Amino acid sequence: MGLNIIGMLYPKRCPVCENIIPDTPGHQNRLVCMPCNTKLSYIVAPKCMKCGKQLYSGNDEFCADCKRIKHEFTRGVGVFSYNKSIKDAMYRFKYSNKRDYAQFFGNVLAKRYGYLIRRWNVEAVIPIPLYRTKYLKRGYNQAELIAEELSKQTGIAVDRNILIRCRKTRAMKELNDEERVKNLQNAFKLSENIVKYKKVLLVDDIYTTGATMDACAGVLKAGGVREVYCAGICIGNGF
User: Which of 31, 137, 142, 214 could form a disulfide with 104 if both were Cys (CB 3.0 to 4.6 A apart)?
Assistant: First the structure.
C-alpha cells in the first residue's frame, strides 16, 4: 500500500516527454514511454569501430573524427545519437535536478552494452569528474549517477575518487577541435600516484570528439592503467 501511495504522489515520468508512464500491465517496468522509445535515435550498425559513433555508410570503419585524431582510449560505445529529443532530456538531467533520469540512462547503457563491457574485463567504472565548484553548485555529478546505475546492472564497482578535475574549464560546446584539447590540458589528475587497475571504463553523459575522454585516459594510462574504454549516453556529430 505504501508503494502505491508513493506512486500516486510521485508518479514515474518519461525522461523524454515528461508525461506520466501509466502503472498498467506492460508499463510497470518501463523507464521511458512507448511513443518516446520509438522517437529516440539509438546508435546501430554501422558504427565507428573506435568511438562507437553512428556511421551512415557501410564502407567506412571509422568516423571523420577518429580518422584524424589519435585517441588515448582503446575503444568507446554510445547509446543515442544526440538529437533534439534526447538533448532536451539530457539538459533537464544536468541542470534541472532530474537525478531520477540516471536510472533510465544507466539501464539502457547496460542493456545495450553490458555484455561488451564485461567482455572487456574492466575492473572499475570511473565517471568523468566535475570541477569542485560546479559540483557544489549542481549538487551532483550526472556521470557519477549513470556510473552507479551501470554498476548495479553489471556488478562492476564504481571508483569515483581516483580521478580528480583539478582545474576549471570552459564549456566544450563553445570550442572548436583545437581549443577543446588546449582547454583540457592539465585539467585532470589522479588522487594516488599508482593506479591499481589495468582496465577501466570511463563514463560520461555526452561524447562529441573525445577530447575529454582522451584527457582522462592519458592521465590514467600515465598512472599505470593499460587499457581505457569509454561509454557515453549520447554521441554528437563532432566536427
Answer: 31
pLDDT of 166 reads 94
Q: Which of 44, 34, 153 is nearest to 102 (CA)?
A: 153
- pTM for the predicted model, two decimal places: 0.91
Alpha helices, DSSP H only, in 120-224? 132-138, 142-154, 177-183, 211-222
Does the pLDDT of residue 130 top 90, yes or no?
yes
| Residue 25 pLDDT > 70 | no
For residue 203, the one-letter residue type is V
Where in the chain does DSSP place strands (E)?
75-81, 124-127, 163-165, 188-190, 199-207, 227-235
43 within 8 A of 80, measured Cβ to Cβ: yes
State how far the alpha carbon of 93 is from the alpha carbons of 83, 106, 126, in Å.
15, 13, 19
Q: What is the pLDDT of residue 26?
A: 56
